[in-house]
């Protein structure tokens, strides 16, 4: 019964939205909902990839850009058909709990630490990210944390753990917002933050900040696409979701990801079907 | 449905166990909004009095302006204030961005037009003779003013309650100039708007309950005042 109502509201919602946009009416089974992280969305990657997929397939993709925590939660609740996220531990738990099936490695990039040109904590060029973060915590500088349970936030917490720093130090600011907003706040407050390289490259022109730490293998950032388990909700667009996931890891999708440039820079490296070692990945990313 | 009930249960536990994080957020909301109201009421009262009692050219323009500004979306006020306070903005040196004072200024800006417009109409509605009678009975100007405000007390209370309701419930400006920083500028509305992005809903519901309770208390207060007003009137 609940499923029926969900299906009805979903169809009604899709119809209402189409009517509002005065575009062609899209049947519910043509819509595929993808919850993904703000990093893939803000960088413009999806705006570049999805029209190419839609041109070849009878599906229309609705992207919901949220943090990884919320994306997985939406998958668990059956609000989306598939997720693309970057938090290996949370993704493993998501699949093990039966919420998601068929996880596929799509691409990777890496995280970097950015901060003020003045570099109060003197971390520029450091090769040990945990040490650099401990230096930041021990300085008078501010560290702006995503604090939103996103993949980047989970990574940050792991790095603090590695650094042996509790995150209640004087300069720690947890803001619960997306990467773009956090970079903007970091800029305004002239603090430090951990960001994925993609969002940093997309925004660096507008920021008075410098890339200070990169290349440590703990900064590896792999993205996976996972289908929401169709056995849990029978109104999911499982076929559409599968088509999108398969296309992303196909030769065509992978080549497009490798070709994607923002301001002339490579943002993501295709990685379907290959075992990429973290060390190799971050050294490649940092070398560019 | 089951999950909604469960989450609401979790929310009640958070509230009643005096969860420190939750009550800190509530504290930020109240201290910021009360400060904004405290700074807004005196000047708004003065402007409203002048608009209601003194005839000068351009008066109606000012009243229309106040009425228009009531409709400005909170995010627009937030954006303007953000640009002013930004490092690259004219007031960047003040270093107020992402602090509680910035939120207070934002809420002050939001409260002023509403206060002025509502106070003006409350004061406008009073019989001019209240002032004259008081003066005739030998009251000083301040005492006559006090008398005037006494006459208009229900309208004045309604203006204050409505404005407080607007600022404590607004979210757009608080996110833009406050930044939702935990332990510093995270208030009820920014927490609901952004913390639920984590997929943790219990805190959001608990904070929503607090807002609902607050609205109820404010309305009860207003209702009690009106009720007393009627009794005095009929006796």
From TrEMBL, chain A:
Entry keywords, A to Z? Signal
Q: Does the keyword Signal apply?
A: yes
- The protein here is known as Tungstate transport system substrate-binding protein
Domain (PBP): give its ranges. 34-252
Signal peptide range in chain numbering? 1-27
| Keyword Signal assigned | yes
| SUPFAM superfamilies assigned to the protein according to its UniProt record, in alphabetical order | Periplasmic binding protein-like II
UniProtKB/TrEMBL annotation, chain B:
State the compartments where it is located.
Answer: Cell membrane
Q: Kindly give the InterPro entries that the UniProt entry links to this protein.
A: ABC_perm_TupB-like, MetI-like, MetI-like_sf
| Xref: Gene3D superfamilies | MetI-like (1.10.3720.10)
Q: Transmembrane among the record's keywords?
A: yes
Q: Which SUPFAM superfamilies match?
A: MetI-like (SSF161098)
Q: Where are the transmembrane segments?
A: 25-51, 60-85, 97-119, 154-181, 201-222
Please list the residue ranges annotated as the ABC transmembrane type-1 domain.
26-222
One Gene Ontology BP term is: transmembrane transport
Q: Name one GO cellular component term.
A: plasma membrane
Membrane topology of the entry: Multi-pass membrane protein
Tell whether Lipid biosynthesis is among the UniProt keywords.
no
Name it. Answer: Tungstate transport system permease protein
Q: Which organism is it from?
A: Modicisalibacter muralis
């Amino acid at each position: 019964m609940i499923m029926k109502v969900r299906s009805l509201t979903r169809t009604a919602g899709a119809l209402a939205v189409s009517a509002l946009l005065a575009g062609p009416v899209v049947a519910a089974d043509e819509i595929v909902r993808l919850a993904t992280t703000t990093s893939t969305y803000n960088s413009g990657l999806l705006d570049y990839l999805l029209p190419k997929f839609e041109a070849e397939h009878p599906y229309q993709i609705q992207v919901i850009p949220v943090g990884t925590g919320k994306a997985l939660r939406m998958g668990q609740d059956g609000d989306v058909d598939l997720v693309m996220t970057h938090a290996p531990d949370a993704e493993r738990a998501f699949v093990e709990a039966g919420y998601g099936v068929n996880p596929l490695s799509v691409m990777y990039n890496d995280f970097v630490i950015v901060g003020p040109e003045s570099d109060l904590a003197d971390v520029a060029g450091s090769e040990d990210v945990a040490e650099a973060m401990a230096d930041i915590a021990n300085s008078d500088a501010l560290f702006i944390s995503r604090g939103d349970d996103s993949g980047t936030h989970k990574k940050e917490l792991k790095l603090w753990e590695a650094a042996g720093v509790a995150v209640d130090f004087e300069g720690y600011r947890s803001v619960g917002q997306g990467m773009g907003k956090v970079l903007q706040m970091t800029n305004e407050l002239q603090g430090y933050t951990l960001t994925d390289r993609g969002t940093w490259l997309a925004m660096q022109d507008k920021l008075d900040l410098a890339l200070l730490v990169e290349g440590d293998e703990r900064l590896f950032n792999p993205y996976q696409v996972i289908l929401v388990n169709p056995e849990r909700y029978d109104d999911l667009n499982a076929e559409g979701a599968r088509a999108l996931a398969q296309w992303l890891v196909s030769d065509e999708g992978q080549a497009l990801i490798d070709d994607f440039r923002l301001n002339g820079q490579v943002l993501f490296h295709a990685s379907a079907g290959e075992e990429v070692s973290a060390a190799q990945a971050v050294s490649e990313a940092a070398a560019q | 449905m089951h999950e909604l009930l469960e989450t609401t249960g979790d929310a009640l536990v958070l509230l009643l166990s005096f969860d420190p994080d939750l009550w800190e957020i509530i504290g930020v909301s109240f201290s910021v909004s009360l400060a904004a109201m405290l700074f807004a009421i005196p000047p708004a009262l003065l402007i409203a009095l002048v608009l209601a009692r003194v005839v000068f050219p351009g008066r109606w323009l000012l009243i229309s302006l106040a009425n228009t500004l009531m409709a400005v979306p909170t995010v627009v006020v937030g954006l303007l204030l953000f640009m002013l306070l930004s490092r690259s903005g004219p007031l960047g040196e003040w270093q107020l961005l992402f602090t509680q004072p910035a939120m207070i200024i934002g809420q002050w800006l939001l409260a002023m037009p509403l206060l002025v417009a509502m106070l003006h109409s409350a004061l406008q509605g009073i019989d001019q003779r209240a002032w004259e009678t008081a003066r005739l009975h030998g009251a000083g100007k301040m005492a006559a003013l006090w008398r005037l405000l006494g006459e208009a007390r229900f309208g004045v209370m309604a203006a204050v309650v409505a404005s407080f309701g607007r600022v404590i419930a607004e979210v757009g400006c608080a996110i833009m100039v406050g930044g939702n920083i935990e332990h510093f500028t995270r208030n009820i509305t920014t927490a609901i708007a952004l913390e639920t992005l984590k997929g943790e809903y219990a805190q959001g519901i608990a904070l929503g309950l607090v807002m609902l309770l607050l609205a109820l208390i404010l309305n009860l207060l207003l209702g009690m005042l009106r009720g007393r007003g009627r009794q005095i009137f009929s006796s």
